[in-house]
Design a protein that fits this description.
Number of domains: 2
Largest sheet: 7 strands, mixed
Radius of gyration: 31 Å
CATH topology of the largest domain: D-Maltodextrin-Binding Protein, domain 2
Helix content: 40-55%
Distance between the termini: 93 Å
CATH class of the largest domain: Alpha Beta
Structural class: alpha/beta
CATH superfamily of the largest domain: Periplasmic binding protein-like II
Number of strands: 11
């Protein structure tokens, strides 16, 4: 059988050699015809797929949800075909902690949304990518943005550590139907009127004049009161607490008055979530920001025509709480070029207007307000007016996140009659000064 197999194999090889040496048949006329004359043109070879660079964007809460529901990520990818974007949603407190963790080897985004008062803290930790070169390369001019939109993020070392994302001013949201029922033709314009209106709009049971604010929102609410009376949290070089001065005590005392007179619910059991209370008519007025435009449109369409916004009531100044909210790039980001592409895209006036129209947040770049999407929006124009009148916030202080918690505790002690304003301010400044000294 081995001999037979060998003979078979030898024969097969010979046949293969003969076949390989046989001249190829002459080409037909069709095969000789030029390509353009062939009935079925040859298919072009597909270009090899190139791997796209992923831009991981961390965002917080509803901001992330609305971003994922919008067309903006797809628009970015269309304009930047070398990139694909991934939006990651995190709670605000988790966002802060994860950014800090990224500085020491934790998971890192390409770019992240942030809070303005985090930037000083992150800067002193050495965790952020400087953005002076980015601003210069893109040709951004300060005059093209709302006041202090960029310089707000320049830390004490002279370095710019964040880029503006949106502008966050505060306005007075009020239920026009409830104010009309109480005989008011418009909203209050100063602190004296706010007390007058607040008393008239409160029955102490199922309606209160002004909304209670929770956690960091309460810090922002108090910030408005403090700036309006001409006060501040710290001195000019961010080295010392100033809440014990005359303006600081006045702001804390006025805050307490709003609770003592039940304009804001004094009883903790009567305090409800701010947006829910406003939506249901439990609160007649509330200090809040542009994200409420989107929430009112999507979650309370039945209130159309029953609410409006106005500039916050003023006292001795027109300055109120507000600031740009930033994009930050961790120094550990593995896609810094993608991060810069994302920030540059979001800072285009038409994209800023698209985001404002879709979600309600206010652009930081002035040209966006001329875009037809928001040029006729009285709410956005009110935000613009508020920004131009003057805003302030606790920023460029390394311990700002901890300081906000110290102030929250002070406010709780004051409204719940645990401490009088003077004693509360004294204790708070002692804690703040310790934090400010440990830069």
């Amino acid at each position: 059988m081995n001999k037979l197999f060998a003979l078979f194999l030898t024969g097969s090889l010979l046949l293969g050699i003969v076949a390989g040496c046989t001249p190829a048949p002459a080409p037909t006329e069709a095969e000789l015809a030029p390509a353009e004359e062939m009935e079925e043109p040859m298919e072009e070879a597909e270009e090899p797929m190139t791997e796209k660079s992923k831009v991981v964007v961390w965002m917080a809460g509803d901001d992330a949800r609305f971003m994922m529901e919008s067309d903006i990520p797809a628009m970015f990818e269309e304009a930047n075909p070398d990139y694909e974007v991934e939006i990651v949603q995190l709670p605000w407190d988790a966002l802060h902690d994860k950014i800090v963790a990224s500085f020491t080897g934790g998971e890192s985004p390409s770019v992240s949304q942030g809070a303005d008062h985090w930037v000083g803290e992150f800067a002193i930790l050495g965790g952020l990518e400087p953005l002076d070169d980015f601003k210069s390369e893109m040709g951004y001019q300060d005059d093209d943005f709302l006041p202090n939109a960029w310089e707000h993020f320049r830390y004490a070392d002279g370095v710019l550590y964040a880029a503006p994302f949106i502008w966050e001013s505060r306005l007075l949201f009020y239920r026009t139907d409830l104010l009309e029922e109480a005989g008011f033709e418009g909203p209050p314009t100063n602190f004296e009127e706010m007390v007058e209106f607040g008393k008239a709009l409160t029955n102490g049971e199922d309606q209160f004049g002004v909304a209670h604010q929770e956690s960091w929102l309460d810090f922002h609410f108090f910030s408005w009161l403090l700036y309006a009376v001409g006060g501040d949290f710290v001195n000019e070089d961010f080295s010392e607490c100033t809440l014990t001065n005359e303006a600081g005590i006045e702001a804390i005392t006025f805050y307490k008055q709003l609770y003592d007179e039940n304009i804001i619910p004094k009883d903790p059991a009567q305090r409800v979530e701010t947006f829910k209370g406003f939506k249901e008519g439990y609160y007649a007025m509330a200090e809040s920001g542009a994200w409420w435009f989107g929430l009112l449109g999507s979650q309370a369409p039945e209130l159309e025509g029953k609410w409006d916004v106005a500039l916050l009531p003023e006292d001795v100044t027109t300055i109120t709480y507000g600031h740009p909210n930033p994009w930050v790039v961790p120094a550990s980001s593995e896609n810094k070029e993608g991060a810069k592409a994302w920030m540059a895209f979001m800072l285009q006036p038409e994209i800023a207007a698209e985001w404002a129209d879709f979600y309600g947040q206010t652009p930081a770049i002035k040209a966006a307000f001329d875009d037809p999407k928001i040029s006729d929006s009285p709410e956005q124009q009110a935000m613009l007016e508020s920004a131009l009148r003057g805003v302030n916030s606790l920023h460029n202080v390394p311990a700002a996140e901890t300081i906000t918690e110290v102030v929250w505790n002070m406010l709780a002690e004051v409204r719940d009659d645990i401490k009088e304003p003077e004693a509360a301010a004294e204790d708070t400044c002692q804690q703040m000064n310790d934090l400010l000294a440990n830069k």
